[in-house]
Protein 1
Amino acid sequence: MKGIILIFLLLTLDFAATGQVEKLIVPSDLKQQTIVTEPITLRKGYLRAGIALSYFALDKYFNSASKKEYYSLSSWHTDFSYQISLRYGITDKFEVDCSIPLKNESTRALYMVSWPGLNSNISLSSNLKGKGLSDCELTLKYQLVPEKEDKISLTVWQWLTFPTGQKNYTNIKSFTDFNLPVGDGAFSTGTELTARRIKYPYSYSFWASYAINFQGSKLISQDDLSETKFKDGNYLMMGANFNIHLNEWIALANELNYKYNQKGIIKYTVNVIKDPAWAFSYQPGLYFQIRRFRVAEAVQVPIMGKNDSADPLYVMQVFYTF
Amino acid sequence: MKNKIPFLIMMLILSSLPVISQKSSEPRDEFTLLTMPYNQRPLSLYKGQLEVNAGYKFAVRSRTYDSNGDLILLKDEGTASVYHYYLLELKYGITDFLELTAETYYSKHGIRSVTTEYYSLSDNITVNTLSTIKGMGDLLLYGTLRLPIDFKWVDFGIRGGMYLPTADNKTSQPTNTVTNITAANTFTVNYQFNEKNGYGVPVYLLSSDLKFTFSKISLETDFTFKDPVKEGQNIRWDQSLTANKTFTYSNNSYQYLLSRSFEINAALHFQATGWFNIKLSSDFMKSSGGWTEYYGSKYKNPETNLFVLEPGCEIQVSPALTIYEVTGFPLAGKNMDGPFYLFITASINMFPFFK
C-alpha cells in the first residue's frame, strides 16, 4: 500500500511545477515597461539614453489658401538629422531631459538660362549643405498630480532651447556656394501641461503647450552684409494621443496634434512680417520594447494647414534604460 | 519493496514517454494556423482564412537610369520627388490549395522638371513644369493554386489573373498658371500636367512561385508575366497662352499598346524566432514591346529594366496581426526611375467562418 502511495506521489510531483506563483515586480522589470505602462516621468535614479533619426524632404506645402501644392522650382531640400537624448529621474515625480540635435541638411538646385535668339544656354547649380550641432534643449518634467492606478495624472513640462547651433551662413564663396545655418539663433522657452491616464492595455493623454521665441540677430540671407534682428512667432500646440498594446511588448501610438505659429518679424529698415502658420497632423507610431531597449518608428503626416510644410516627417528612435 | 522498485521506475518512465515520443497530428486550431511562422507556411492561405493587407510605401525618387543604364542623380538637378503609395489587398483561402485575391492601390506623385528662364531682347519668361500622377489604380483579381500536399519543405504554386481597367486613367486637363507678372513680357509660366493611374486596358497576369524550407532557412522564388489584352486609348492635351495670360486647352486622342513585362524575385528568409522572420530578396523586372502614338505615328516604347535589393522583415504581433517591413535599394536599371523606398504593411488574418 505504501508503495502505491509512493508511486502516486511521485507521479503527481510535477503538479508543483505548474502551480501558481506570485508575480514579482523587480527594478529590472520596471525598466522594461512600455510607453503604455510606464509613468510619464522616469523613476528615481533611472537613466534613459537614446538616439533619434529623422528624415523629411520638401516636396509639398500648404499655401496661404490652405491648399496643398507641390513646390514648382527645381530645388530639392532634405533634412536627415540625429538627436541624442538623455533622460534622468531625479525623483519618482521629477525628471530632467537633455537633447543634443545634430543637423544634416542639404539643398540642391539646378536652374537653366536660355537665350534662344543667340542659341545659347547656361546652367546654374548649387549644392548647399548644413551639418553640425544644432540648438540644444533642456527640459524639466514634474508630476503635479502623480500617476496612480486608473487615475488621471497631471504633468508640467518646462523647456529651454539654447542657440548652440551655427546661426549664420558660413564659408560664403558665391551666391550658389555656401554652408547653410544649422541653428535658429535665438533662445526659446515653453511650458506644457499633460493629463494622462493608464487603463491597461491602453493609455491616453491630452496636452497643450505654449512656447515663446526670444529676439535674436543673424544673417537672414547669405548676401546680407550684417546681422539683422528678428523674432520668430510664438507658437501654441495641443494634442491628444492614444496608445494601445498590440501584444506585451509592441505598442501602437496614435497622436493628433495642432500647431499655430504666430506672426514673426524681421527688423530690416522696414520691418518684414512672417505670416502666421498652422498645421493639423496625425502621427502613428510603433514602439517595440525589447527588454530595456525601446525601438520606435513613427511618421508625422500633416493633414491640413496654412503657410506650412505638407511633407511627412519620419522618425526612428532607439533608447536604452540604465 | 524490491519488487516494486522496477515497477515504480517503469511507471515514471511510462508517465513521461507519451509526451516525448509520439508526435501528435498537426493541430488545426485557429490559433496555430494564424501563428504559423513563415518557414512552416504554405504558399497560399488555409481553407477559410481571410487576410486583409493595408500597406504604405514612401519612396524617394532621387535617381533614374538612362537608355544606356547610366545613373542620373535627380537630386543634383533639384528634380527629385516623393512618391506615396497605398495598398489594399484582400485574400481568401477557398481550400488549403486554392486562394483568391483582390488588390488595388492609390498613389500620388509630383515630378518637377528643371526650371528654365528664357531671355530675348524683349522677353524674360521663367518656366516651371510639374507633372502629377494621382489616383486609384486598377483592380487586380487573381487566383493562386498550390500543390495539393501538406507543406513540409517544398511548395509550388501558380497564379493567374487580370488587372481590370477600373481606374479612370484619362489624363485630366492641365492646370497651368501664369504668376509673377512684372511686365507684359516678364512673367513665370507654371505648367502643371495632371495624369492618372491605371493601365486603361485589361492586363493578364501569370505567375509561378516555388518555396523550399530547410529548418529555419527558406528560399522563395517567383516569376511573373504581364501582357496587355488589347490596345488602349487616352488623350493628350495641348495648350495656348493668350494675351491676357490665361491658357486655352484642346485635346487629341491617341492610341497605345502597353509593353509586356516580366519580373523575377528571389528571397532568402531566416526564421529567427517564431514571431520574427528576416529576409533578403532581389527583384529584377524588364519590359519590352508596345508602342505609343504621337500625332499619327507609332513609336516603340523604350525597353526598361530595374534590379532592386530588398531587405525586410515580418513581425507576428498577435495571432491576428502581422507587420511586414521592406526597404528597397535600386542597384541597376535602364530607362527607369530607381527610387529608394520603405514599405510597411499591416496584415490582419482571421477565420471568419471557422468552426
Protein 2
Amino acid sequence: MSMLSEPSTSRPFDVHGSPGERTLAPAATGRRDPVDPALCRQWLRDMLLIREFENRCMQQYQDKKIGGFCHIYIGQEAVAVGCTAAVRPNDPIVTAYRDHGHALARGMAARHCMAEMFGKIGGCAKGKGGSMHMFDREHHLYGGHGIVGAQIPLGVGLAFACKYMDEVIDGRPNSRVALAFLGDGALNQGAIHEAMNLAGLFDIPCVIICENNGYSMGTSIHRGTTMGHDIISKAIGYGIDGYVVDGMDVLSVYHDMSAIVEKCRRESRPAFVDMRCYRFKGHSMSDPRKYRTTEEELQYASDDPIGRLKLHLEERGELSDAVLKDMQREIRDEVRESIAWSEASPEPPMTELYHDVFVEPHGPYNGTSLPKMLQGKDLR
Amino acid sequence: MSTVTVIDPTMSATREIEFRDALREAMTQEMRRDPRVFLLGEEVAQYNGAYKVSKGMLDEFGPRRIIDTPISESGFAGMAIGAAMMGLRPIVEFMSWSFSLVAADPILNNAPKMLYMSGGQFGCPIVFRGNDGAGGQLGSTHSWCVEGLFSNVPGLKMVIPSCPEDAKGLMTTAIRDDDPVFFLESERMLGMKGHVPEGDYLVPFGQAKVRREGTDCTLVSFGRPVNFCLDAAAELAKEGISCEVLDMRTIRPLDIDSIVRSVRKTNYCVVVDQSWSFGSPGSEVASQLHQHCFDDLDNFVHRVHSADVPTPYAFNLEQEYLPNARRICEAVRSCLYRA
C-alpha cells in the first residue's frame, strides 16, 4: 500500500503508526483491473462536490444558517466515494455524525442535505435530524448517528436483516452486505466490541470500516487506544478478518473495498477495515486544532485525495483542463443552488412537532409521513 | 408447571394456563403468522428460556428464528434495532429489565427516536420484554422497576400486564405494533394461572380495565401491584370501604380518561406504582388528575410506591419496601380521612 511504504525520512509525520506485518493485508493482493476513465472522472466529480459542499457548509455555519454541531468531511472524501463505488446500490450503509460525505456519495441531492442543516422542511429528515443525522431510504442510508460507536450494532443489525430476509424468509442465498462506518475515536466504545463479537459469532455480512483519521476529537489515536498502530488486531480477536486500506487514494479504496465486500458477500462473513485517512479540518466547527502541528497538516494536505485522483487522470491524458473547469463550475452552481433552495424552503410547520413520534396516531401524536424528498420514489 | 402446546378444545372455555405460557402462546402464534418475527436473547433457545417463557420454541422454529445471544445487551439490542429499521419485527428478551441498563443507549437513543430523527423514513417495530421489579430477594441491582426511568421517553410504548389473559392479549398487540414496545413482565407472576382465550387474542393499548368496581376510592395501578390492590380492596371491604381497582395495562399510552371517569365517581384516588416515587408513572397520574379532576377530588391524590431506597435483600425489609397490601390499605384510609 503506497502510503504505508513511503520512506519515513520524506514524511516525518505518521499519525497512524506502522501496522508492521499487517501491511500485507490480503486485500492488497490480487489484480487491479484498470478503471474506466469515465468512472474515475465521476469519482472526481463526487469528491469535488463533497469538498465544495463542505467548504460552503463552513461559511453557512459561520453565518449562523446552520446550528448545533457540524463536522466537516474534507480530507476523507475518497473513503465515502470509493466505498460507495465498491458496493451495490441496495447494500445498506450506516455511519456516524461526520455524515454529509456519505449522504452525497450515496446519491442524496445536495439541496436536501443542506436544507436538513438549515432546519428546513425540505431537508432529508424534514429538519428534525440536523447535520449529524442524515437519512435516505431511497439510497439505503440508515443514518447519520450522533452517539460515538452506537451505529455499529445497528449496522450489524442491517446486515443480519439482509441475510434473514434472503435466507430465512425467501429461502435463497444472502445477496447483500452492509457497510458500517466509524471513526477511530469509537474504537474504545463497548458497543462496537459487542457488535464485532456478534458479527463474528453469527456470520453477519457487515463490513466495519474504521475511518482512521488519527484523532478522536483532539486525542491522538495513540493516547486513546491500545495497539493504535495496528487496530485490526481488535477485530482479529473477534474472529473477523482485518485489512489496512489507504483511504487517501480513491482507487485503492475502490479496489480493496471491492475485493473485501465481494468476499464478505460470497462467504457471508464480516470484515474490518483500518481505513487510513486524515481529516483536514477540525473535529467540529469549534476546534482550533491545537493538538497537532501545521507541519503535520501540510504534509497530509500534500497527500490530498482529490489531488491524487486528478494527477492520476492527468498523467493518463484522461482529464482536460476544459473538462475539469466545466466540472468545477457545475459543482459550484449545484452547491450554490442547494443553499438558495434551502433558504427558500419553509421552516417545518408546527404540526411537525408531534409528527413522526409514533407510526400510530394517538393523543397529541399525529402519525407519520415520508419527507418530500422521498414522495413518489420506489422504496423497495 | 405445564407448557400448553396442545389444547383440548372441550376445555377451551375454562382453560387456565400460566402467565409464561400466555406469553409464549402469543409469541408462537405471531411467529407462525409472520416470518419477520423472531426472538433473541440470553438462553432463549437451547436452555429453553431462563424462566421457561420460550420453552419449546427452538424446536418449532429452529435456531435462525429463536436466537441464543451472548451476554451482550448493548450489542444484541442494537443489532435488533438495526434489523427492525429494515422491516423485521424482533422480540428482544432481557432476562431482567435490570440488565437493560447496559443497553440504555440503543433502547432509549435509537429505538424510540429513529422515526423522528429520520423524518418519518425509518420506524422501529420492535418488542423489548423481560422481568421487571423486585420481590425475589435479588438485591438492588437485579430488582429494577424501569417504569419511572423509561416511561419518561417519548416515542416508546410501555406495556405492563397483571394477569395471564392480558399477558397474551397485550403481547400479540405489541408484536403487531409498528412502534417500539417496552413490555414489562414480572418473575413473581410467571407462574400465575388464569383463563386465557385461545387463537388470535388482542388487547388494545391505552385501555384500562376495571378489575373491581367500587364507589368510595379509586385505586390506580400497573402490573404486579394491581394484584396487591385487589388484596387491599378485599381487606378494606371488610371495613366497609368500597374500592374501584383500575388496571392501567399500558403506561404509555396512559388511559387518563378511564381514571378521570372513576375519580369523578369516587372523589378519592390512590395510585399504586412499584417504581420509585420521584418522577414516576404514579407522580404523572397524580399530576394529570390534579389537572383534570381538581374540583372532583376530596383529598389530594395519595401515592404508594416502592420505598425510596435501594432494594434491600433481607426478606422482611424487601416485603416492606414493596407497595404491599398493608401499605395500600393505610394510604386508602388516610386518603379517606379514616386513618
